[in-house]
Amino acid sequence: PAEATRVSTPKVSKEVLNEDKDASGPALYTVLLREAPLASYDGSIEGLPATSPRQTGAAKLDAKSPESQAYRTYLASQQDAFVAGLEAQFGRSIEVQYKYQVALNGFAAVLTPEEAAAIAQRSDVRLVERNGFAETTTDVGPAWIGAPGIWDGTNTGGLPGTKGEGVIVAIL
Length: 172
Hints:
The chain is of the alpha+beta class. Helices cover about 25% and strands about 15% of the residues. The chain has a four-stranded antiparallel beta sheet with strand order 2-3-1-4. The longest helix is centred in the middle third of the chain and has 25 residues, at about 65-90. Mean pLDDT is about 85; it is low at about 1-10.
């Protein structure tokens, strides 16, 4: 007889990411909510058409379309309601520093480690991460990947070196 195949769903960590064990005091945390951001919204809410290029068939996301503006207004109201609920729960005003709606759905706010841990347990939250900076542990990485040769043109197959011109770097 054939054995039944079990499909397991990956568990979502309910811990605060990037949190030090001995963390104390307020810090900036990123809170991502479960509802889809503008770029991947599939139209599943009645009255709000899909905005995802995968659903609309568009070549790229049109963040200025009426549909996109309507969904962003919806996300903003959901985020405001979420934060108002936190303020009621924690008995204080929450300092929201950034709101995300296009590629991500969430916000960055100043929270205590205890507040961040409580938020991470909620079912409407995808993840909570303490913002931080990582120190560079090596300065020879560019040499390992041949970047100096791209810079000066010796490793570009005959193309001129770019010296970094036209390079856009982003950290999300």
